[in-house]
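Please check this one:

***
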Amino acid sequence: MSSQQIPEENLPVEQGTAHGAVEGAGDPFADPGLPAHRPRIQDIDERAAKRSERAVALMFTLSMLATVGFIASYVIFPVDKIVYIWPFGHVSALNFSLGLTLGLALFLIGAGAVHWARTLMSDVEVADDRHAIEAAPEVKAKVMADFAAGAKESAIGRRKLIRNTMFGALALVPLSGVVLLRDLGPLPEKKLRKTMWAKGKQLVNMNTMEPLRPEDVVVGSLTFAMPEGLEEDAHDFQTQIAKAALMIIRIEPDNIKDKREREWAHEGIVAFSKICTHVGCPISLYEQQTHHVLCPCHQSTFDLSDGARVIFGPAGHALPQLRIGVNSEGNLEALGDFEEPVGPAFWERG
């Protein structure tokens, strides 16, 4: 039904013209204004203000202690220490302590600032009209005046206890980020220069877990070995085997071109690191006719008959050789550790 067919008395009427409506009714979107200011107890009682000041200072002080605890956690807890904490279960002691202390340090700074603002700073609401985006000189002057007024109302100059503890908390928190730089890499120690190999350590076959004897290694074969005493269920097994894994190859002595390689071998049995000197991949592809060994990751190729020098690929230097001999029981043994770092080049290599 169209509007022309609707009876006139049923048509809607404009607001303010209907029967009973008041002409010139008030604006429904009128500004109600600001509520009357109600002073807080801190505004009228200096003792209450002092209590709030001490509470804020306490939170800033606890934040400083939490930051110190964060730094101390790095020293106290080893990376692999696991503890049981209800209701979280078994967690890393280091990760839990770092998260707890850093979270407390940041929370207490925020809580202290909020409590300071709610109880001690001025809570008088001020209405300010919107202005153009560009800042006129008088606007800049007003902003600076407002800033000065806010600084005065915050009493940061008069309440030295809050000011000093806040500065202390803010100064210590960034130290947490400095400590985190530790995780960017290993500390400058000699961990990468040393392996488990030492004089008298027997070579253990990684397949049979039995000591290797010279007769176990035939010409053209490739055998993988690890140091005696290294157990697969040890917590640091992966760390140690990544440095100590060996390739054992037997070459006819007359076919060994490098003099030092021949001297460090035993009856043509030579031991080289299994870790590629490019990016540390385990080498496992051996070509017995050419005595070349190939890294499967990036095809670096080493000549095991010539000091394991690089003949192809991105590797930067030869594979380290381990000097070996035979003990009184007839088993192959190491005559010392590698004389150069195993694996890829690193910043300490001189």
Notes: Residues 168 and 207 are 60 Å apart (CA to CA). The radius of gyration is 39 Å. The first strand starts at residue 82 and ends at 85. The chain has a mean pLDDT of 86.
